[in-house]
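Below is how a single chain appears once it has passed through the pipeline. First comes the sequence as given, then the structure the pipeline wrote out for it. We keep one example in the README because the format questions we get most often are answered faster by looking than by reading.
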Amino acid sequence: MKKSLIITCLLTTLIGCKAEKKQFSKLNASQTNVMFQNTLFETNTNNYFTYPYMYLGGGVAAGDFNNDGLEDLFFTGNMVPNKLYINKGNLEFEDISKTAGIEGDQRWYSGVTLIDINKDGYLDIYCSVAGENEPQNNVLYLNNQDNTFKEVAKDYGIDDNGYSMHSTFFDYDKDGDLDLYVANYPPTSFKAPVNYYKYMIENHEDRDSDHLYRNDGDKFVDVTKESGISNFGLSLGVVASDFNNDNFPDIYISNDFNAPDYMYINNGDGTFTNDILNSFQQTSFFGMGVDASDFNNDGWTDLFQLDMNAADNFRSKANMSSMNPEVFYQSVSLGLHHQYMQNSLQINQGNLTGNNPSFSNIARWSGVSSTDWSWGGLFADFDNDGWKDLYVTNGIRRDVNNKDFYNENRAFFDKMENDPSYKNKEEEVELLSYLEKMPSEKLVNYLFRNNKEKGFENKSVEWGLDEKTFSNGVVYTDLDNDGDLDLVVNNLEDTASIYQNNSVNMNYVGFNIIGKNNETPIGTRVHIVADGQYQMQEFNLSRGYLSSVSPRIHFGLGTSTQIDQVTVEWPDGKTSELKGIQLNNYTTIDYNKQTTFVEKDEGIYSDEKTFETVVQEAPFLHKENPYDDFKEEILLPHKNSTLGPALAVGDLNNDSKEDYIIGGAIGQPASLYIQQKNGSFRSVEVPAFEKDKFYEDLGIQIFDADNDGDMDLYFASGGNEFNEGSQGYEDRFYENTGDATFERNLKAIPDTRISGLNVSVSDFDQDGDLDLFVGGRLSPKKYPYPASSRILENKSSKDNIQFVDVTKEKNPALENIGLVTSSEWVDIDGDSWDDLIIVGEWMPIRIFKNTEGTFKEITEQVYKTDHRGWWFDIKKGDFDNDGDMDLIVGNLGLNYKYQASEEKPFKIYLNDFDKNATYDIVLSYQSGETEYPVRGRQCSSEQMPAIKNKFKNYNSFASASLEDIYSDKMLEESLKYEITNFESIYLENNNGTFIAKPLPSEAQYSNINTILVEDVDSDGNLDLILGGNLYNAEVETPRNDASYGLWLKGDGKGDFTTQLPRNSGLVIKGDVRNIRKIRVGNESHILFAKNNDALQQIRIN
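Resulting structure:
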């Protein structure tokens, strides 16, 4: 018995030790015979310092060049010959480069794209050429159908002599043949000032521009200027796709440095309009490769753009560039857009403004924002589950942004750049020896699995893709025809990587598409439905970075065993429906053999949407006063001077029609708008408002303070511009003396000077008049030091309005309670007394029970005491129709640079760390088991100069933990807050206790500043209208701008369904600060107040 037990244990151990086959297997070059290596040959006179574009890498293309049913591989070489490998089967290849005639000459070959340019059924090769070597013309290798090629670019008129990185073929004019867009990167100093880019956009030479060539049959004609795309940019990525679903292909150009990206919308008449500022709220700064695909299966093409933001603490602080605030804002003011150093995952929201698409960058929410120095990204379904995953190549040959390297060699480089005696002395000074001192680190590429509504998850190591390389171009291709997508990567200074995909137990379907008259079918769309799941693929070869992907269209089907529908949209507008498509097979679809075409099913469509923006004659325009919060509080996470405007609705002149008041910034008076009989609004001048215009109006409450039948006003003054205790933080009470005439009553309220924002009303003591809660938003210039809030009891008589501060007697816990943003009076336990719930930034949700006019905190009894957030608003409603009040609480959301969890909280510390009698802010996050500061050495030392003395270089700071930098003792003595969750939530009231549930994922794409509870569609269930965004972030933290407003439809059971803006008509761009419903005649309208923007009015249809 004992012996058999030992044998059983040994067998179990042996079985357990057997390596489980991973999703991908790296194939050895000795097995595949693919020996290509994109090697660079640097010398004293030819290296990164003399040619800074040396590390941009090369591309790769996959396609069946000899029509044998197996996809072959082509690689571009920068300083080595191009290579062509013919697939012989069994994942073995033959190098035919020399005999094929494609190795090239001394040119610097960069990007490659495949095309059957003469429609003979054989793929040809178009290569983009950059570099310093002459000639610099692009080349076209025409396939002779015998494994040899002839260079004919000049014959076709496309031997572009720009500084080309990549190109894409597409039929922009819908004449049935393919035109060509060439993306160029003209040599530009990396130190060029921002205004240089603006100047060059307006004054560039033809060679500096990208180029568009129209196919006129046997020849291509340069139509760059007449088409409207003459531009200046440092173009590293180009992708053509129909972004607005009008059947005309558009173009996206990804540009490096301060050069803005371009979004060329096809006007359908042979011209394009650059819509980048309208369609995108932000872009990447160092824009690299770009890919376009429908990753969320909604029928709209999304976009992924690469940048160079590291996820690793050390590399981000030692190697990555810092964002310069002055340069950033200058770039914005010159119209070069909000560009941030991060990857961008731009989800297509549809055509929200006319025929132009609108995008939201959800890279942080999705988990794909930071992949180090990245080049190419490709969407493809690598596990055949029906959802497109994302592969990213990264790695730079040397860490050219390493700050310590340049600091240590600053004297030498200053002489090389400025001393005439050093000119052309690269050999004498042995320049290469300096370059070889520069740090260099190979990196693992990323493969993110698509987790649908949960974003993406990095599976690189788990799926067997843990090789460290300097990777550039990448393609997907099914090299062994087994139904899953393999990967091929062009590496710098390394043999090309080929990864075999080992997917099992998942179904697929693939298509070989032949276009009309044998044209390469670029722009063709294939739609499928399998077991009710929709997918769409657009035929497009130039994808990712410098590369050309497999011409076969591939769909993963997961465990689906049948295909319900296959629809093909051809570039000429015709549509085919296919029946009887076989699973786990590649099917050929030939346009020329289609016997019937069907009309495209547009569905039942109505122009009328639930919401409609009302055109106002002269809308209120909020004008934020200029103030730099970061001058005194360098490490602030966001401005505190841009929190307005306030907005309030009420009948102010007793005519039974609702009016509104909107607050102004400092120097701008509040404005009163009276509703007219025709439903319009007239601005009425209020002398008291004009007199008080140097207050910042952040909270306004309209209520009848003295029960005289007309509405009075309470204004909360706030902001961060004045010193603590300044008169600028006086709240104001305006008494309605009749017919909307208001006079300030100085004696009505206590003279307490706290920077506030929120004011809410309730007869908390049930004495027949309305009392006030007034929230303290912040302690000016001492963020995040807590502010005090107040309860003001109404003790007015007939002739004397009087509010008394009863905080100490009624609720002393409000003293220094925190940075309050919102409050709600709600009877949570059904005892008919309004309880008080308060939320704020860095605060937990605080719940105070009202016992006959006196308050006691019961948070611990009814909810979590430690659920801190950046809570911006709270609203009540019976969302599950059970008779009690539930809550909606708006938080920062999950699409921000700051992330938090129970295991890895996000923290802030406040202390005088350097003992210079000023408060210092330290933000921190956790990586692994170690806590690090969010900000780097440069900006941290600007606030605390002693840091530079303690950490002499960037590497030492990058290696230091938070405790190393600030000491355990100082951190322990600091004011400290931590957050474990930034989700916006629904709190269900369950017999007086609350249970939290996150709002739908779309509600987490941005912060929620303001909430309106309303039964929008009159179905008896309460819905939510959400407004948000946070434009006031410091520049190294990309602003929250992904929200276009959101309608969450309630089901009466506590669940909500997202109603997308393109369907609902609810489209609100901007930094939305307040939402109020207003009755206009017999209609329901909604007002949206935005910071530094015009008021928006929307009708509910």
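The radius of gyration is 32 Å.

See the next section for the split statistics.
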